[in-house]
Amino acid sequence: MYIRLWAYTYACGTAFEIRYYSKALITTARLSANPNDFALVALLGLLGLRIFEACGSNISDVGEEHGHRVLRVRGKGGKVVLIPLPPAVARTIEHAVEGRTEGPIVRNLLGARMDRHAASRRLKHLAAAAGVRMPRMHPHMLRHTFVTTMLDAGVSLRDVQIAARHADRSVSGSRRTFDRCQIGDSPNRPRCGRGR
Q: Does residue 75 belong to any structural domain of this protein?
């Protein structure tokens, strides 16, 4: 199935544009015949995982803590954290796993563990199918979407920092910086990285 969404040339990368492209990727991945596409996009964009965390997740890392489904993730510096799984993401993982009891959650087209290079190529393929035109499509933009969506929803900066597992507050950005990146009605709206 081919889906053509509004093709917009990626120019600056405002928070609005990045969220728009991420939604297009999520929609295209959800409708993809390959269940690993949606699992990859869900892990990156809906849980905010880094690419190596998503590709390194195993079926045995999915568990239950205090009645909630969780994913055990080994992050930067070897830190292990438990990330709660929203029901939609848990269903997506179950669909990608297809009854297997061991091995990686996300697999490439050959059935082996998907590495970060294969994941990047898969996301570029999904972006092309969604009509997203970006000169440098990268998996980390889904993590950016995770952070900016939380800030936009009014989540405190400290909670966003904890959810994104950022050790330094400056990595998550400040609320003032985020507000300057919002889309406005003016054609001369401020954009990230310009007019600061």
A: no
Residue 126 lies in a domain: yes
pTM of the model as a whole: 0.72
Tens digits of residue pLDDT in 75-102? 888 889 899 999 999 999 999 998 899 9
Q: What is the 3-state secondary structure (H, E, C) of 74-141?
A: ECHHHCEEEEECCHHHHHHHHHHHCCCCCCECCECCCCCECCHHHHHHHHHHHHHHHCCECCCCCCHH
What is the number of domains present in the chain?
1
SS3 173: coil
Contacts for 22 with CB less than 8 Å, ≥ 6 apart: 45, 141, 142, 145
Q: Cβ-count burial of 100 within 10 angstroms (0-12 exposed, 13-18 middle, 19+ buried)?
A: exposed
Q: Which two tokens stand for residue 113?
A: 């563990």
